[in-house]
Structures
1.
Amino acid sequence: MLRHCLAAAIAFAIALPVAAIAADQPAAHTPTPKELLAKSQPQEWRTPDPQNLLIMTLPKGQVLIELAPDFTPLHVANIRTLVREHYFDGLAIVRVQDNFVTQWGDPEDDDNGDKSKLKPLGSAKAKLPPEYTRPFDAKLPFTRLPDGDVYAPEVGFSQGFPVGRDKAHGQEWLTHCYGMVGVGRDADPETGSGTGLYVVIGQAPRGLDRNLAVVGRVLQGMEYLSGLPRGTGPLGFYDKPEQRVGISAIQLASELPPEQRPKIEVLRTDSATFTALIEAKRNRRDDFYRNPAGKIDLCSINIPVREAKAQP
Amino acid sequence: MLRHCLAAAIAFAIALPVAAIAADQPAAHTPTPKELLAKSQPQEWRTPDPQNLLIMTLPKGQVLIELAPDFTPLHVANIRTLVREHYFDGLAIVRVQDNFVTQWGDPEDDDNGDKSKLKPLGSAKAKLPPEYTRPFDAKLPFTRLPDGDVYAPEVGFSQGFPVGRDKAHGQEWLTHCYGMVGVGRDADPETGSGTGLYVVIGQAPRGLDRNLAVVGRVLQGMEYLSGLPRGTGPLGFYDKPEQRVGISAIQLASELPPEQRPKIEVLRTDSATFTALIEAKRNRRDDFYRNPAGKIDLCSINIPVREAKAQP
């Protein structure tokens, strides 16, 4: 039963029309994600720019992170420099705070660390100006969600990332949804550099939006960051060195020979199939879901990623 | 730096007034949670009813779950029966799906399980009517949040649980926030019994609201459910028996001698201090937070739990 049970809630069940409880819900069945993806067109998928694709190698597997240079260009450029110069190789995951973030960087870069042992930055910058929002640009693609948001006047997706917009104040920004990657900093807003990065592993901490530089999103391997024992020190830091998870390397796909780059494709967030997936999730009605929400929130939408088909 | 960094985002920093970007934000500093809790009154804390307190013993620690009989009375009663008759003792966590749920129950209760080996239910019922919503009751306490919600007409807290309300349709229900516990079922709405339970470990899957019976909330030990390796089978099921996490026992606190019951207190969600915590989180402004959200969503609010002071 268990596998049916809740499992059915996200399985691709045969959709049946059922009696509606809320009168404003459509009675027809909704297509499943599997059905919608099967009908997607090749041009609806994109290969991430290898200049924007980080490959993080952990003991149990690889994490792929897509960078968002249109939103945080200075931070992304600095992270590329750090990565090219192998800054992260040999560093570690140092913090896993439940329902908040997993964070990695230099273990010595910590209140209890020995600052004399800090890994040198190389040619990367030690401080950057804040890039917490960017000027609103009507030319950036935007797939707006119809159901509103508690925090931002408008929310939707741009170039594969969840975005909040405030046209009245001329700003837009990446939001702290599950799997989004940001840059740690001190209290001074100009102290972030990209040497310490975090990823959201719980309920979206949207209060961080517009207070930190968000640089990208995990495309694959999120389970290697989220499924770790929580740190038992203050704020979820691992209080014993042996609890840390070593990072063999973080590489840029563009630095690898083409045949060694990850072969993945991401569904375009300005595609018809993505819009159809959003609609199907808003009004999901099938054998299991008797009371479709009729709504969807920004951080509950998954962006499909698939293995690229072999080139002919 | 790391410990400051993002760590400061939730640390109890000295609050400083800073220039407001959004004109509607108050310029004064906000009190920290630590400051607010230090001023709380003893009568603002409650000891969970031992009839509603489950103690789940896992290899790495204990999980405390508070049941919500005012919302799902039949399911809660059945779970109490299962627990009193030691149904869960020796069963296991069978599924950890990233950004969704951790689920436990009888490993044989699975598409691949041997149904002849199913643990007998004892005097518990095998099926229950759906309790996905309950009739709206103005007498239940309700601390309403001021910033709206994507899914429900009204949201807030009642008796320590996050709640959605739809007065127009005369319904209220527990919402699927992080740490909420629900009852798995088959597609048929009358197939849930409480033998298979799940807890939310990611972004709140609010589309499940009003489709499943939510029976309670994890008060303590959430990290033992969320910080597990993700299952690699379909839907996050552990595909090898050795991956499962054994449950030594689930007990009801009321079945234990008083001196062996967990000594914890929960901040009342109808207390002045809880309201002050919500306000401080909505408009957090300190040395780190330069752009307070001015808003808060239901599932981003933590309900404080503390060790009870020793009785004199």
2.
Amino acid sequence: MMEIRRCRKMTSKPFGVNLTLLPALQPPDYPAYARVIIEEGIRIVETAGNNPAPVIKQLKAADPPIIILHKCTTVRHALSAIKLGVDFLSIDGMECAGHVGETDITNFILLSRARQELNVPFIASGGFADGQGLAAALSLGAEGINMGTRFMCTIEAPIHQNIKESIVKAQETDTELVLRRWKNTSRMFSNKVARDAIKIERESPTGKFEEVAPYVSGKRGREVFLNGDPEHGVWTAGQVIGLIHDIPSCADLISRIEREALDTINKAKSLYVEELPESDMEGKPIQDSSANPTGEYGAVGSKVNNPQSEVWGIGKSKL
Amino acid sequence: MMEIRRCRKMTSKPFGVNLTLLPALQPPDYPAYARVIIEEGIRIVETAGNNPAPVIKQLKAADPPIIILHKCTTVRHALSAIKLGVDFLSIDGMECAGHVGETDITNFILLSRARQELNVPFIASGGFADGQGLAAALSLGAEGINMGTRFMCTIEAPIHQNIKESIVKAQETDTELVLRRWKNTSRMFSNKVARDAIKIERESPTGKFEEVAPYVSGKRGREVFLNGDPEHGVWTAGQVIGLIHDIPSCADLISRIEREALDTINKAKSLYVEELPESDMEGKPIQDSSANPTGEYGAVGSKVNNPQSEVWGIGKSKL
């Protein structure tokens, strides 16, 4: 409630609340969270995690019903969430930060599967930092992108400058998957704590969670963002850290992404050149590209002799 | 040499040869392979695998030098290959079939990293089956796509019909990563042999390759394609099997992909609507979108009042 009221003071614009339902020894009182969200007049909630049915039912029973964006890492869970009445989905590939799920399907596959199967709109999560990524997500069928790690690396993000700089310095290979053994796989920034946790996870003969618990403490993880010591605990980061090279303002970041996406789409569009009508050539039909006597390569879909055509590309590529 | 001559009989078009350099107890005579490739007048070679330097040197010493496409799963290896003189690269994300490498970077990240770092052109491998994927790959900076699993599922592919139908029936979750323990991780179709291999790999206290060797026999894997029994041995398949739903001819597949890619790019382009010049509105400049008195959401990059603008999207999205 405090955070909702704090956010309301900071902007006159609408905002959403995330409610992630995680397995825990002592689960938080999620119904109470949902009640506060409704009472505070929030209109959009992002749900994620296990067994969202009761919370979705509660939020949908509000008057008017709350708009629900559900985040998931499999098409199967997305289809279940649609049956529960969610309004749109956030499709989260295995490149993402935090909970990646247990199937390790990448966004190139997962977004296309979502396009093929889902009858509600979806946005793309996990792996996005720039306009080229936005253009690619739109190509695969998403309505937009969701960025977590990238926004951590902005001037406005309320985390320690050291952590922002750690992200800028990091490469795409500097993340680890921890807690797979307990089917709660999370992508974390690669530091000694995370690597020690994985070692215990792999080598412990008992497989008792208690052995790894001190290493994956959420409390110490949250302290990282305040004290600026990237080695203090485990903290989430996506593979996208490899694509992040600066710490802009949110406004600069968004307008850069917009410009990049537009340039990207225009460039892709420019690759396609209309085929000339066959009669424009020599007045006789040419059946297939094997009738092309001089082209070194047969162009994809080429029906006319075009010495500039290439092996790959669409239509008559200018590449 | 036999295969090169067989291929030459089947087409008058140029074709390339793949030379994958794998760790093996008794390595094949790769220099002899390269010699035959040169003698047969092949002009394009795709190299992949470990320690390609000697073979690349040999192929580049041919007169004229052979054009080399090198396939790799990390930016680091791509940069090394460029130093060795390769002409272009095939960037292979962890969703791919067969050798995925050991870093598990997905194509959304890896292609963007390639765009940021490489000064030679690259195509995208791993996870491609349709025109939406091609459009996304072009967006991320690739010059085109490379398809393996998708072409296995065409009328012309010289493999048993049962295997093609197994791919059509399979979901994106029906692959397994085997041989990670020996740093030779391969993505295989999920059958009992592959799952048994993984069980041994995980549970063997010795970690001796001999224990798993009978399960990952390449000979039995190749027999699968002839005898049509998907359970006979391990055989490679990418996560993209989840996107494959039919067995078209190659010509139909290619023209479908071309049409889908063009439609996809046109649709992405149509999402962007030019901002109206500010003077067209009320003759006075509007500093930022918070000055927008009526829009329920602030549009990304919006400078003018547009009640149809939305939270996500580029420019003034029509979504």
